[in-house]
Amino acid sequence: MDKLEKLIELNGMLVDDQPQYRKEAGRFPEDVSSQRRLMRSLMNVRYPRMIPRELLRRQDEYLSAEREEKGVIHISRLPACKKDERLILWQGDITRLDADAIVSAANSQMLGCFVPCHGCIDNAIHSAAGLQLRQECAEIMARQGHEEPTGQAKITGGYNLPAKHVIHTVGPIIYGRLTRKDEELLASCYRSCLRCADENGLTSIAFCCISTGEFHFPNDRAAEIAVRTVEEYLEAQKTSVQKVVFNVFKDLDKEIYQSLLA
Description:
- By secondary structure, the chain is an alpha/beta fold.
- It is 47% helix and 12% strand.
- The chain has nine helices and six strands; from the N terminus they run H-H-H-H-E-E-H-H-E-E-H-E-H-E-H.
- It has a six-stranded mixed beta sheet with strand order 1-6-5-2-4-3, sandwiched between helices.
- Helix 1 packs antiparallel against helix 4, helix 7 packs across helix 8 and helix 8 crosses helix 9.
- The longest helix is centred in the last third of the chain and has 20 residues.
């Protein structure tokens, strides 16, 4: 069975699991690119509930093969910053990193992004990890009984990601002028993620640019807070964390972090 046939079969299972989308799914052409977009869309809109065993098996088979096809980035081979050998700057797709944990910029529901194929980091991570990630998040939130406060973090498995875990943190949303409280909440996100890593004995963590995308935190100030908070955490206490990756996607963010870490 080739890649297209596997996708069509998997999408058929996803539609059987969500028959309300059968009509929309039928509009997608039968080529690899379109069917892969359909698969991601159907994953994105699926509400957390029991996942049929065969659907889960086929999903994991496809996503694990895709992970190897994209190529895993081993952080042990990435060059350290001159400023501190524990710090790494890397530009690219965070879902390819084999860190003990990668950080997702979540919303307060902590269930991932439900907008089909949305460009946010939360959507990308959930789409690469698989349906199990949303299911675990839902179980955590059900036990908690309330939305996740801004500046806090939760840890889950990584499932089909190269990373062993995902740490989900809710960053501040900037509606107007940046305030001191916004800055303190963003710093709290970084500290909370590092504490999660410590509590679970993790040695490496990769941060996305928390709050700078859909949440509109100014890129330069967010980077300054990220670097300062991580450096202070690593210096202030005994920690299991030996490597911290600042993962960027845009050239703008790369230039800002290069300046800060020079």
